[in-house]
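Researcher: Please generate the 3D structure of the following complex. Treat every line as part of one assembly.
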Amino acid sequence: MDGFLDLAPLLAILASAVAAVAVPLTGEKRRNLRETWTVLAAVVKFSLIAMMIPGVLAGERYGMDLLEIAPGIGLSLRVDPAGLLFATSASFLWILTSFYAFGYMRGANEAKQSRFFSMLAACLSATIGLCFSGNILTFVIFYEILSVATYPLVIHSGSKKAYEIGRQYLIYALTAGIALVAGLAAIYAVTGTLDFQPGGFLDAEMGMPFLWTVFLLFALGFGVKAGVMPLQSWLPNAMIAPTPVSALLHAVAVVKAGVFGFVRLVGYIFGPELFGAMGAATFLAILAAITILVASLIAITKDDLKARLAYSTVGHLSYIVLGIAILAPQAMLGAAFHMITHAAMKITLFFCAGAIYVHTGKKKVSQLDGIGRQMPLTMAAFGVGAVGLAGVPLVGGFVSKWYLGVGALDAGLSIYLWVFLLSGLLNAAYLVPIVTRAFLRSSPDHTRFNEASPLMVVPITITMLFALLLGIHPDGVFRFFSLAEAIVASVTGVTFTGGI
Amino acid sequence: MSQLPALIPTTLILAGLLSLLVGLRSLRAGHLIALTGTVVSFLVSVIGLLEVPSSGQPIRYALGGWIPPIGIEFVLDHLAAYMTTLVTGIGVLVLIYAPRSIRHESPGKAALTYPSMALLVAGLAGMSITGDLFNLYVFLEIAALAAYALLATGRRGGAFATLRYLLIGAVGGGFYLLGVGFIYFSVGSINMADVAARLPELLESRSVISGAVLMVLGLALKMGLFPLHFWMPDVYTNAPSSSAALIAPIMTKVSAYAIVRLMLDVFPPGFFTEALPIAATIGWMSAAGILFGSIIAIGQQDYRRMLAYSSVGQIAYVGLGIALANPIGLIGGLLHIVNHALMKGLLFLIGGAIQWRTGLVRIPDMVGLGKKMPWTMYAFVIAVLAMVGIPPTAGFFSKVYLMIGAVQADAWVWFAVIVLSSLLSAIYFFRMVEFVFRDVEGAEESADDSATGGVSADELRGAVAGEVPPSMFIPIAILSAAVILVGVFNFLIVRALLEPAVAPLLGG
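Model: Done. Output below.
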């Protein structure tokens, strides 16, 4: 069994890579068969990843070195709690997104569906690849592939605007990529190793100019995908992609790859101690705090529903970055867990936005009066996601925010507690009115019950339940909370007893 | 086994001459002879490529039985095997590709083209394999003459561009020869190994220093290092596609390789970096060339001219590797020789395919090609990803090695140049990807991705739908696969061939 699980990370990456090839070869004419490849790949991939959870929690580190790709550096796959946490959520949500996307793409009668599903599968391969990367070079390889594979999805509509946005997207993503390559070259030249190590492997003797150069290169590389201001502007624009892409990639896989990069940077390259001592933590925390507040304020002004959600994503990604930068074990725990809870809540909201668009053609918040009567299930799910993001108990968002806040206090940085609280209020201000409008106002457009296709409503319901379960029993779903604890334990050595 | 080195250039020279004679009667037979000769020398090179690393010893061959250092010696060592395999391999692919392309672009000149191609490959393979400084000059001139013939068969304007190239080439060759003369008079030998053995006592000699400078300067001219690159754009733009596809990938690289050879195997370690500031000079020329080439390429409307300026930048990566003069940097530069040869060859072959199919050479006209020739355009995407340096394609790794080398050498400016240039090349190449995959008109209306939508667009441009014939597509497919495979398995090449080759840098 263990021998097989050592292969599991590789197989999990290959599963969707195979789908990425099989999908376009099957083609539009046999689309049910084509969709079968996607589902098959998603289920196989998730099962492989989920199978590793018990072992990894017990301290196993599955993986293998595939081949040497540079002097002393292999293409190395290693499964640790951090990678597994992210991989489990991304692959689980890919299953739901697949079904949702079938409904969405058919409902909206989108063109180039084969290319769409193929590239989506390729993106998932790259995401899982970077989750399981055992060293920086492997990570960067998958990170770059992810950037490139997302491009065809961003320009999907083929409109002039989409190409312009695609260009902006590429400039941001490739700049980020080359910054990472530069950073890894610098680290390798000085240390001769690129392996991620819990607690980090750089030390202060390497000199501040070098450490800051490395930090800034990596911060640029990860900050773009994580949407840390001032590098966020591509993300709201990328909402031009079909909604399943916005939901899975630009709320979960791609953007969290950036956040995950920060986890690796702080926990496994620099180590929390050095990161704090050199002042980088303060720098990053201030940027993240500003991002949280400014993005929330901008979100309030947006009438376009997806744009509002996009700014909300920008803000919440920085919750995680801030949690990491606070460096306190509790905050790190909250940050890791927020990766999951935010994914569950935000994907629900995007799914709802897409269902509303496909079903009624409405994109703007101001058009949603009374839509709760027509689509009550969708809007109820939206409500759960909305209050969850604001931090109301019983939804996952409360748990992660609790630990983020406690961590801020522990570290003696109570100012960030206020940032979290204030932003919670702002979250409520830009999301809750959508729900109240939908249910409390009335409109002649929406009088009778008429939900979107079950292909969309069922995934929406499941992600909503997922978000609720995370709030009621945080460790109940795929042991995410234990994984988050294991990350903190491996990075800081602090163990928690009892959980929540 | 010991005859292997001699077989490589002589087969090619014989094939070239025979192809010329036969080709006047039967074009097809002439082509076949040239192709056969190239295939044979490619196979021999591959045998050498496998043999040398496994035995760890170079294969030496004394020409005509004259014992070196009196006679001429061919030395098939790690680096020579690496280069000859590349040079002959590209030669095979281009010769497979050439007939259809030539019939379309420069009919009537085919009889001259195939022999010239074989001779060009012969010259370059000979340069790679020779162990004699003067003999290197002879092969350099063989390659140059063949190249002039190939280039001048192009469109109007090609002849003039070639004349300029010829003059520069003659100057470059002249400098090199002069340098060899200086070395001969002060050292008393022109056998590389012999010179290397005698040099350490003569390093202070002015004529040795002058000789070194002249030889490197001559080769730098041949290599097209900025600002000595100015012949390149016109030459590549006006040449027939298949000639450009042969010359652009390998010609300048072999001159770069010759500099590496001088640095590693003739002059003692540190001579180019410490005794003389040659390496630093090459480095700054390269850094400038990388930026210049990339920036000018952005503004080009003509596909081939864009590739030419891109080549100005790319050859400079090899120059940077030479300049860094540490093992990993030089490995990056040497790996980039193969990487760039593969991707640039691929891009020129694709350009020829586009021309063959649609007659287009201007990038803005290429809108919608993705529908007309999808497979060729997928190959194009692979080439672009490699040029930009996206993993796991070949281009990524040479860049990483160069960057690591730059940090180790504390060359932060060069480091920044490499970073910046990746972004610049992304700009001009992705712009083109965007063009070819954009729908011709009314993109929003096209409801599905079946082929029916493309027909009217084809008619609009008066072009025929469909791909290029197999003889043109197979080389494109092979190079696309190679670009990825060399990337994924680059370390096998590095370990088996390049690490032993740069060993002299370590043994200071």
